[in-house]
Every structure is written in structure tokens, then in C-alpha cells.
Amino acid sequence: MSEFRPRRSVLYMPSSNAKALEKAKTLPVDGVILDLEDAVAPDAKVDARAAAVAAVRSGEYGRRELTIRVNGIGTQWHDDDLVAASQAGPDAIVVPKVNSAEEVRGLVAAMEAAGAPEHTRLWAMIETPVAILDALAIARASERLAVLVLGTNDLVKELYAEHVPGRAPILPSLHTALLAARAAGIAIVDGVYNDVKDTDGFLAECRQGREMGFDGKTLIHPGQVEGANAAFAPSEQAVADARGLIQAWEDGAGSGVVTFNGRMVENLHVESARRTLDIHEAIRALDA
Ligand SMILES: CC(C)(COP(=O)(O)OP(=O)(O)OC[C@H]1O[C@@H](n2cnc3c(N)ncnc32)[C@H](O)[C@@H]1OP(=O)(O)O)[C@@H](O)C(=O)NCCC(=O)NCCSC(=O)C[C@H](O)C(=O)O
Ligand SMILES: [Mg+2]
Fold first, then answer.
1. Closest ligand 1 atom to the C-alpha of 19?
2. Residues whose beta carbon lies within 6 Å of some atom of ligand 1
3. Where does the HpcH/HpaI aldolase/citrate lyase domain lie (predicted)?
4. CA-CA distance, 36 to 51, in Å (whole number)?
């Protein structure tokens, strides 16, 4: 069994929304973010925290990677959120607006002091200009940091940019975060698509994210799950091509370069093909 963990579809839901917490148990998502930050009104924060902890403790989310997004560092809720989430022991704690490697180390220290179990990882949200400029240091700051999560709404806001099809205004930021994650050897998931009724726009953005190298996409509505799962999984054709390419390589053992479907194949292409098959197998294992 490969160690690759699929994160094609990672669905946010307000932890204050009992119906959404219930619905998530039935959805074929790879991950769930129980949100305490932007989706929860100030007067609902404390109850939402208790609901997120109860959801984690329920054990009712099956194979889905279960995470809690706490309120940001420096807010009045952050410390209590972090302690409660650490003690609940989800798969990860998602922290918004992480701005430096020092903050990552401080978060990890606080999680450990609060008794977070070993399996509870940190996911850092990259959603400010300073985080983009310090992305590599953030990504490398701790072994406990497993995933970078793009916060494209905050990023667009902070840049005084606009949401446009193709995302040209934020492409340099997306690429910088991707470079940092890959250099650090950790996963990275793309930001959300706000128009839950615009399926074509959403699918185009999924395709773009996949082509850029993202592992998956954060989502805000159940209607986005299927499209993300398909976009971030290798297609049947990609799996067949990966198998064929590896076979061609093995048939030409020792030659250093062969061709498959008329194209040059070197060792690096074989590594990519093996990664494709690892992802495919990990998805099959999840769905089994
Ligand atoms: C966007 C929504 C407010 C729309 O909600 P609603 O009008 O209720 O949608 P529907 O009527 O179409 O819902 C159909 C059913 O699906 C359930 N539902 C809806 N959304 C979710 C969800 N996210 N998770 C689970 N289940 C969900 C409804 O309850 C209906 O169920 P049923 O009646 O039983 O069929 C809403 O979708 C929503 O609140 N989405 C999440 C918003 C959120 O979490 N935002 C914060 C994260 S985004 C962000 O901040 C990213 C980052 O920080 C950045 O800067 O970009
Ligand atoms: Mg945000």
C-alpha cells in the first residue's frame, strides 16, 4: 500500500452548521475542514468549537481526513481553539493566515503542549503576501507540517486584485506556493471556487489546478466534490499510458532511453509514471 494520501477534494463546512456536519459523513470527499474561522459568526464561535470537537470524537467520518480550522493567531479564540482541537486529535489542525516559519514552530509547540497526538498534523494556510514571499521557509519549518492550503479569497483581497477566469492576477502567488511545497516535499491544495452554481467555471479551475501541480482543491459545496475527485485523479488513459510506459522501459532494460507511443522515455518519465500509478492505487484503496 502506497503512503500517498489522496486530497482531491477537501470540503469546508461551518462547524456551526449541524446539517452540513451530518451531510459530510455521506459525501465521497477525501477530506473535511470543520471551520471555526470565516464561516462562523463571532457569537457562534464557542458552540462551533464544541461541535467540531464532538464531530472528531464521534468517529463517524470514516476514511475521510478530518481536520479543524481554528481561528487565526492573535484572535481572541485562537488559543482555546488550538487547545480544544489538539485534545480532540483530528488528522490535522488547519491554521489560517500563517505568515512565517516562526509562527509554524510556535503552533507546533502549542499543539504539543496541549497534548496533540502524534497523528495530528499541521496544515498551514497561505493567504497573505508575506506568506507567499516566505512560503519556502514556512513549508520547511516543521516535520509536523503536512500540507499548504491556498486561501485565494484572502489573497485576492490582500493584493487588491480581482477574481477573474484563469486567475492571472494570482498565478505568480500560486506558483510560488507550489514551488515551496514541492521543494519541501509536502502536499498542497488549491483555493476554493466561490460560485457554487458555475459548474463550467469550477471544472476549468480544477483542471488548471491539476495542470499546475496541486494535489487537490478545497471546496465549499457538495456539488463540487465529484468534479474535483475526477479532475485530481489520473484518468483511465493516464493509468494505461503509465503502465505502458513502464513496460516499455522494462522491455528496453539497460538502454537508458526508449520510446513509448513515439515519445522519448527516460528514467524521469518512469518516475512520473510510477507516481501516477501510486496515486491511482491510493484512490482505489480509499474507494474500496
Ligand atoms: C455556500 C453555502 C452557504 C450554500 O449553502 P446552501 O444554500 O445551504 O446550499 P444548498 O441548499 O445547495 O445545500 C444542499 C445540501 O448540501 C448541504 N451543504 C451545503 N454546503 C455544505 C458544505 N459546505 N458541507 C456539507 N454540506 C453542505 C446543505 O446543508 C444541504 O443539505 P441537505 O438539505 O441535507 O441536502 C454553503 O455551501 C456553505 O456554507 N459552504 C461552506 C462555506 C465555508 O465553509 N466557508 C469558509 C471556507 S472558504 C474560505 O474561507 C477559504 C479561504 O480562507 C480563503 O481565503 O479563500
Ligand atoms: Mg481565508
1. 29
2. 11-14, 19-20, 23-24, 35, 38-39, 96, 127, 151-154, 191-192, 196, 220-222
3. 8-222
4. 10
Q: Which residues sit opposite 149 in a β-bridge? A: 125, 189
Separation of alpha carbons 90 and 85, rounded Å: 7
In tens, the pLDDT along 144-171 reads 999 999 999 999 999 999 999 999 999 9
Q: Please, are residues 138 and 148 in contact by the beta-carbon 8 Å criterion?
A: yes
Label the pairing between strands 145-150 and 9-14.
unpaired
Tell me the three cell numbers of residue 26.
455521506
DSSP tag of 201: H
Going by C-alpha positions, the residue among 139, 138, 84, 130 that lies closest to residue 110 is 84
DSSP 90: -
In the numeric block, which cell numbers belong to residue 177? 506556493
C-alpha cell at 263: 515519445
**From the alpha carbon of 155, which atom of ligand 1 is closest?**
55
Q: What residue has cell string 470565516?
A: 38
Report which bound ligand comes closest to the CA of 218: 1
Q: What are phi and psi of 269, to 5 degrees?
A: -70, -30
* Number of the ligand closest to the Cα of 220: 1
Angle, to 10 degrees, between the axis of helix 236-251 and the axis of helix 267-287? 140
| Helix and strand numbers, DSSP H then E, in the chain | 12, 10
Is 144 annotated for ligand binding?
Answer: no
Residue 15 CA to residue 49 CA, distance in Å, equals 7
Please tell me the predicted confidence (pLDDT) of residue 257. 86
Across the range 70-76, mean pLDDT stands at 98
